[in-house]
Design a protein that fits this description.
globular; single chain; alpha+beta; 422 residues; five-stranded mixed beta sheet; Alpha-Beta Plaits
Length: 422
């Protein structure tokens, strides 16, 4: 089983993750070619650098022949190599006046960013993952600043290069197709960062919200080491956080920032061939349950949507018979143990129940992953599950439906084409 492990001892940012994954990617030319055609005037360059004697790759996002001058909005830690300023924070460079004349200031909403991503000529899975990352950031920024997610706007000066960072990481994940993704505890840094909202503590409120349920440490470097983009990418792809799993090393990549610190400013990505799990349960999930007999179907549907948006692994309803002969439903929310307290409060907030029951359940779980099946209809992304000597594969519905629609075929015919490619 191929496991991707991300070491975040110096935090995480989009371009650093992209550089680390790029070094592992077997299709580097395809990646750079496809990224160059995302937007007019955009190129993504892999620059060989060294940090504290360690060789790695810095991914330079160039727009219209120049790296973004950021319009005065950057993070302290990634002043010259990463631009998360589009995510609601407008990070102010100490010398903003030197750059502002290069750019005009416009803003894009989350819907506009999603529409931009939908226009990319990349696999559907890549676009869906990129939009998921932006949705996570928008919700975190909205909660941090007391607005609705739809009111969060992204600063255009950094938007295009940041979209490239996010999309690039999602595309590399697609090309690498690991069976599982894990990460180390995340070093977030310390100190403060200058923003349009004033001086904020590190980690910023949005980053802290994104890292809820993730093991973190401040470290001894007074700078912002983990950005909102880095946190959202980790939350999107990593299914667990902890030590590197045991196995055979297949490769290692180093993604570097440009700023020098006493330790190498890089994210390391390892590909490890881990043995299939054998024996007993290999995972733990939490079940949150409530019996409800006084909510409409519409209200229950709304509650389900809110729980899934809040990070539930699954939400289901089961018809039950309650006291006084009332028909009711058993609401079950499946989640990670670290998210249980937060999701229990969401259940109380969005349903009429007065109580939520909690059960922590050891489970036998196949390790999830993704790869691509090459069919005569084109590539179709598929989910995979491995472990206990088993391998399962299932087509991603969105890709399957898109292939059927593009060729004017019934869904069953597209599924047959997928099955033949196994």
């Amino acid at each position: 089983m191929k496991t991707l492990y991300l070491e975040c001892a110096m935090g995480a940012a989009g371009d650093m993750l992209m550089g680390a994954l790029y070094e592992l990617c077997p299709e580097k030319e395809r990646f750079l070619h496809d990224m160059a055609h995302l937007l007019p005037g955009l190129t993504v360059e892999a620059e060989a650098v060294t940090r504290q004697g360690i060789a790695g790759t810095h991914m330079r996002v160039v727009i219209d022949g120049q790296e973004e001058a950021y319009g005065g909005h950057v993070h302290e830690h990634h002043e010259h190599e990463h631009h998360d300023h589009e995510h609601g924070h407008e990070y102010e460079h100490p010398h903003a006046h030197e750059h502002e004349h290069h750019h005009h200031h416009e803003h894009h909403s989350l819907a506009e960013i999603e529409a931009l991503i939908d226009g990319f000529s990349l696999p559907e899975r890549v676009r869906a993952d990129a939009k998921k990352v932006y949705a996570l950031i928008a919700r975190a920024e909205a909660a941090a600043h007391g607005v609705e997610a739809g009111q969060v706007h992204f600063h255009e000066v950094g938007a295009m290069d940041a979209v490239a960072d996010v999309t690039g990481v999602c595309y590399l994940m697609y090309l690498l197709a690991p069976d599982a993704v894990a990460a180390s505890p995340v070093t977030v840094g310390s100190g403060t960062v200058h923003t349009a909202h004033g001086v904020l503590p590190v980690p910023t409120p949005a980053t802290a919200r994104l890292l809820t349920g993730v093991p973190v440490a401040a470290g001894d470097i007074a700078a912002e080491l983990c950005t909102p983009t880095g946190a959202a990418l980790l939350k999107t792809f990593a299914s667990s956080f902890g030590p590197m799993p045991a196995g055979v090393m297949l490769g290692c990549g180093h993604g570097c920032g440009t700023k020098d610190f006493p330790r190498a400013n890089c994210v390391r990505a390892f590909l490890v061939d881990t043995a299939d799990t054998a024996g007993g349960p290999n995972d733990t999930v939490t079940e949150l349950k409530a019996n409800i007999d006084d909510m409409t179907g519409e209200a229950l549907g709304y509650a389900m949507e809110r729980l899934l948006e809040a990070g539930a692994l699954d939400v289901s309803y089961l018809p039950i018979q309650m006291k006084k002969n009332r028909p009711g439903v058993l609401l079950t929310c499946l989640c990670r143990p670290a998210d249980a307290d937060r999701l229990a409060l969401e259940m109380l907030r969005h349903t009429t129940t007065f109580g939520v029951r909690r059960t922590d359940c050891p489970r036998y779980a196949l390790t999830p992953g993704r790869d691509t099946a090459d069919t005569f209809l084109g590539p179709i992304a598929r989910k995979t599950g491995t472990g206990y000597g088993l391998v399962k594969r299932k087509a991603e519905y969105e890709d399957l439906a898109a292939a059927a629609k593009a060729h004017g075929l019934p869904l069953a015919a597209a599924r047959e084409a997928f099955d033949r490619a196994k």
